[in-house]
Structure formats: C-alpha cells, structure tokens
Amino acid sequence: MLCLGLSGGLDKVYENRFQIPNSFMHDGAAVLVRDGQVIAAVEEERLNRIKHSNKLPISSVQYCLSAAGVQLSEIDHVAYYATEAYCNAMLENMLASEPDASIPLDAKFLVQQLLAQEFGTELDPSRISFVSHHQAHAVSAFAMSGFEQSLIFAIDGSGDFLSGLVAVGSGTEISQLATFPESNSLGLFYLEVIRYLGYGLFDEYKVMGLAPYGDPVPYRELFEQFYELSANGEYRVHLDRIGPTLLRSIQVRQKGMPFTQQHKDVSASLQEALERIVFHILRHHREATGMTRLCLAGGVAHNCSVNGKLLYSGLFEDIFVQPASHDAGCALGAALIVSGELGRPAPRARLQEVYWGPDLASDHAVEEELKAWAGHLEFERTEEVADRAAEWMAGGAVIGWVQGRSEFGPRALGNRSILADPRPATNKDRINAMVKKREGYRPFAPSVLEEDAREFFDLPGSACEFPFMNFVVRVRDSKRGLLGAITHVDGTARLQTVSRKASPAYWDVINAFKQRTGIPILLNTSFNNNAEPIVDSVADSIATFLTTELDGLVVGPFLVKKRAATLQDWTALAVSLPPYVSLHKVRAYTAQDRQETVCEIRTDHSSRDCARISHELFDMLTRIEGEAVLADLLDTITLDQAQRETLTGELRRLWEQRRVRMRPSQAARVHQN
C-alpha cells in the first residue's frame, strides 16, 4: 500500500498564480510511505533551491516516485495537508481579490489537474484526500514516537482556521481534547513581537537564540498585558495590543541595525512568556489525563529552548519531538493518516533517523562532477575518509561533509553538514561571519557520540538519546570553557547525540576526531550559506563550497580543496537564471538622490527581494536563452580586460546570493571526459 503525502503551495516554481498567504502555504514537501513505513521524503526547497518553498512540490514527488521505482498511477492514495473546506475557502478569497483570475474553486479538482499536468496521470478523485492540518501534525509525532499512549501537543501559527490542538494518542487512535483558534495563536504571538526586533516570518529561531543575552525582568509586566492564563489550561493572547504597546515602549529595530540591550531583554521576555503559556496548557492536561509521555509537533515545537525546559521540569517521563515539526512534517502526517485509514498504520517504533532524502550518486558520478570543476577544485579519493577529515578539523579546518541520503527536516544531522572543532570560541565567530554570513550571536550545535554524551552534558533522568537537535540542554560546568564554540552564553547547547547504528559514517568521523583530540564532539551546522536552503546534491555542495570560506569539502570518499581559479576558469563556466528569477528596469532614486533608470534582479516577481545590477550585466543576462557560457556572453559586449574582470566579479556575487547559477559548461564536461 503506497500513500503519498503533500504539503506546500499550488504554483509551479516560475508561477505566482495562487496568492495564498505565505504564512500558511510554505515548507512544501512530499513523503511516500509503504504500509505505514517511510521509504522516501524530501522538502521541495532542497530541490528547487527556494527557502521555505511555497510551490507545488513537483520535484519532491518525482524523487519519491523514483526512489520507490513507481509511477504516480501506482500510488494508492494522495493526501494534502489541509482540509478541503479550508482550501476551497482560500481559493474563494483569491477569486474575490482577483475576479479575472482563472482559478477553479474545487480544491480536489485543482490538485487532480495539477498532478495530471505534471505526471500525465489523472488520478481518480476517490484517491485524493484532504486531511486536517493539525491532525497531520499530531499523527506525524505520535506515530513516530514509539509510545503506546501519550499526550499530544501540536501548535503553530495557523492552518485550517486553527493554531493548534491537544489530544491523547492511544494505540493507533488519537482523541482530540482541545483546539486553539488563530486568534490565540502562539506562533503568531511570537511572530508579531519579533517584527519590532527587525525580524519576520521564519526568523523566530533567531530570536530564540538572542533571548539568553537578555533579562526578562524589565519587560515582564509589559508582556503580561499580551496574554491571560485561565482555568483548565485555557489562555488568551492579545495580538492587537502588541504593536501599539511596543511602539510606545521600545526603540523599534530595523533590519540590519545593531541589537541594543533593550532588544535582547524584549527577546528574553518573549521567550519567557511563550514558556509560561506552554507550561500552563501542559500542566493542566498532564494532570487531567494522567499521561506521562508527551509528543510535540507544529512550528512552535522547533523552539528547542521550550523543549529543554520541559525536559528538565520532570513534568513528563519522556518527550518525543517530531524532527520535522514545521509544515513539511504535515506531508508525513497526511501520508500516515490515509495509510492508517487503509489498514496500514505505522508500526509502533521510536524514530531513530530521518535520512530519507536523495542519496549521493555513485562514486563514479561524484568523481565526474568533481572533474568538471578542474579549474576550481583539486581532489583525491581515500579509503580513510573519516580519519583524514578528522585530521583536517583537528588542524583547524572548517569543512563541508556530505554523505549518503539527505535528512528530512530543517536540521543538518551529519549527512549535509558543516563541521569543525567544537573547542575554539573563534570557530563560532569565524563560521558566523565568513561562512554562514549571519548574526554573530547565533549559536552552533554539538554532535556527540551517544555513549559519551553524559560526560559533557547534564542530561536529566536516564535519557541519553537526542538524535534530532530538538532540545537545548546544559553543558556541564566543567566542560563549558573547553567547548567554547558550541556553548551558548547561558551555558547550554542544542544537542545531537550520534548513534553508531543509525549514523555509521557520521559516528566514524566524530570518533576519529576523538582519537586525535580526546573530544568525542564536533560542531555541526547546516551546509548552506545565508541565501539558500541546506545543500542536497553534489552540485549544490560544490556551489556552496566555492562561495563560502570553507577550508575543505568531503563528498563520499573524496577529499576536495579549492584551486586558485583564473579569470579564464571563471569565464569557461555556463551561466543561467533560475526559474524563480526575473530581470527588471525601473525608475528609482540612486545614492546621489537622483531618480534614474536602474536595473534589478528579483527572486519573487516583486521588488521586495531584489538586487541592483549594472546596466552592462543586465544587458548580458537578457541575452541568455536557457544557458550560455560566460566567455561567449562577454564577447557580445566590447570590453577591455578590466571590464571583463569587473563584470565577472559582479556575476560571482550574484551567484553567492543564488540569483544566478554557474556551473561547468557541457563542452567543459565533455573535454574532461
């Protein structure tokens, strides 16, 4: 029995027909389960390279079908991550705002039509289902927890006109206890506050990392105006009070401005308020149901600081957090719901790993990909890849590490990671500034051999398995000075324990580092820069390696370093525009405060995410039909050597921002072969 779960939007990658608010339709994914067991899962952003993609997960579906060796016609059931009534209401709202839009008002017919266009198969409507958004969150957690019974708390921003639910899971059944309306959304509560800290949607985790630098006391009473706690675990948030109150009380931070202590204190107060509300809800339902275990899902469950507080509180004996708690995880929940309805529920087993994405190509194919970049890369193959990588890191190198199948969810768990020595505090600063190009306060996570975790981290009870970076835990006092790169300002870390059975290649490299240094831990962060999702393919890995200041790259059995590429090497590359990019000429004010015609490259068909480019580069890019070799493009314009270097440098900066694509031309690949 094959069941396919889907999340995300309804547009193709180059379209913006369905202007449904991005606060709902985002984090597109596809998950394929056979008889209740996951065989393939990937987020669309990993494949179309659009962060938090709100597009139809076409590439994800293609991957899942390929992994199973089947056609769409062989799928028994397809499930979408929202109710049909909600989807129809969204379509009606769109039509009301755009009366001339040719949009069908039947969501099931629309999904059927879109899949038929892409895969040439018109599924019978009876094989397409729509499931409750928060029920999908709940099932994605409970079905993977291994618990026979537990309390379930699914909480996020919005979906199906709600923001969450509390339920009890027993066997294969889930009984709903309470739901929370959008007006009481804890996700929207958090989001509304961070707007005044210079952040927006998908930045919530950044404020969670900033909170330990602040003191909640100065703004505690102010935040108590924003929510009320009442009997029976009920609560109310006052979203309408937040803006007016904060505008009167703090200096609003604009994006890019430095953080003041005031901003840090507001972050601390926000985090404290969220924790108080969550504990209020869960204490009541823990007492009312007698449940000693807890499952968490929904976007708010990615707040690993709250999860850590719950862990240490002793309120529950065991807590399972769905590693893909955000909306991509609803694709998993949707698939499991319909699989259960068809008599194939998920087996009752604790989730151990989520390496469900695309695998690396064969060693031969990886080698051919590396050869094509001969002017930019040098590499060697080794049978001692873990030892050599550990040697690099022990010597101070920061490396990209790419092995096996990619992870499902927002965390790099050792198959698509940036790795480094966890000891020097300077590693944190270096990676933030020169590799990730992000705020300097942001912490990095440690990956520790499971058997050594308690020596370095103060773990409550008998718990020793934390494979998904879902909990902030305390670094032991005696180890904080030693682990300067992964210990946050409050003495904590977002922990990943690594099992030899679940992650053998990753365990090997950490163990090899331990043999050299005595430290069974590596700093682990996602392999990407600030402009892109986590890498998935070998080509993604090379692009990120060449556009960051990483010292080395390990892909499968290959050790890779950079060459000093010449201008000729750069101009031999082929250039193309991603399908989500568009070019525009507009009238705008320049730095000299004059209105002139300027050239822009945009990534979302609007002026909200754009970069200004030179007229020469604009004219050159408009000449591209599909893909063109840079040298040929430069030859279409009369340029001297200095101008060729300047335009090439400008194009490389756009590549770093993922506004253009650069790769070896087909001619270069043939030549290398």
Notes on the structure:
This protein is an alpha+beta fold. Helix content is 36%, strand content 22%. The strands form 6 sheets. Strands 13-22-21-14-15-20-16-19-18-17 form a 10-stranded mixed sheet, sandwiched between helices. Strands 3-2-1-4-5 form a 5-stranded mixed sheet. It has a 5-stranded mixed sheet with strand order 8-7-6-11-12, sandwiched between helices. Strand 9 (227-229) and strand 10 form a beta hairpin. The protein is globular and about 75 Å long. The protein starts with a strand and ends with a helix. The mean pLDDT is 94. One of its GO terms (molecular function) is transferase activity. Residues 23-336 form the Carbamoyltransferase domain.
**How large is the radius of gyration?**
25 Å
The amount of helix comes to: 25-40%
Number of helical segments with 4 or more residues: 24
Average of per-residue pLDDT values: 94
Number of strands: 28
Distance between the termini: 43 Å
Largest sheet: 10 strands, mixed
Class per helix and strand makeup: alpha+beta
* Low-confidence region ranges: none
Strand content: 15-25%
**What is the general shape?**
globular
Adjacency order of strands in the biggest sheet? 13-22-21-14-15-20-16-19-18-17
